[in-house]
């Protein structure tokens, strides 16, 4: 999943990076398929080149290794809303068939309090203004749902034309990469369809892990297995994170 997510950034010039799996993928892409990729984090860091995976958008490693650090208002008003970012890379707690995202609250069932999630952060603006949006998350029925408990971030709304009607300049989600395969929006309906499987995964497995009647493309491909070089780069990134002393950044030294 992480390696295929990194491969999806081949050819991109700039990426607005979410924390977690998107950050792993973006940093791996810079070490493999896209060495000149400019990593942008919503805390205001431009061109960060972290030596390990950052713990959050406020990790000092991002500022220490950035080409420039700007204010959050400048980041959103000038760089993001100005249409200067090629790709936004997001995670999600829930995704529906039109790639809309929930990261705010989930219904935990009768008699139980709602489950509060981290919230929107910059995701609504990222999905609205980046040239395209990539998403990465694990494929489970609780994540891929028929109806979101809350719409935090608009993907393709209720179908084709919704983004244009709202005046959103970006193309929206173009791929959802999971641990089972890859889903992409149908060009006519904007509904996510299964386009690729990871080696050893079946269509039935993906459908069983999806909370709606998932359609598949006329021809479903199989992703290329990770190469030795890709695995080495990914393991080195994770090893560097594991070796970092807790709650310590280079600015503490």
* Biggest β-sheet strands, sense, barrel: 10 strands, mixed
Helix content: 25-40%
Shape: globular
Output the radius of gyration.
Answer: 18 Å
End-to-end CA span = 34 Å
Count the E strands: 14
Give the strand order, joined by hyphens, for the main sheet. 4-3-2-1-5-10-11-12-13-14
Category by helix and strand content: alpha/beta
Order of H and E elements: HEHEEHEHEEEEEHEHEEEHEH
Number of helices: 8
* Poorly predicted residue ranges: 247-253
Instruction: Indicate the mean pLDDT.
Output: 93
Q: What percent of residues are in strands?
A: 15-25%
- Quaternary assembly: single chain
What features would you describe in this structure?
- With 253 residues, the protein is α/β, with parallel strands linked by helices.
- Helices cover 25% and strands 21% of the residues.
- The chain has a ten-stranded mixed sheet with strand order 4-3-2-1-5-10-11-12-13-14, sandwiched between helices. A two-stranded antiparallel ribbon has the order 6-7.
- Helix 2 (21-31) packs across helix 8 (228-243).
- The protein is globular, with a radius of gyration of 18 Å.
- The model is unreliable at 247-253 (pLDDT under 50).
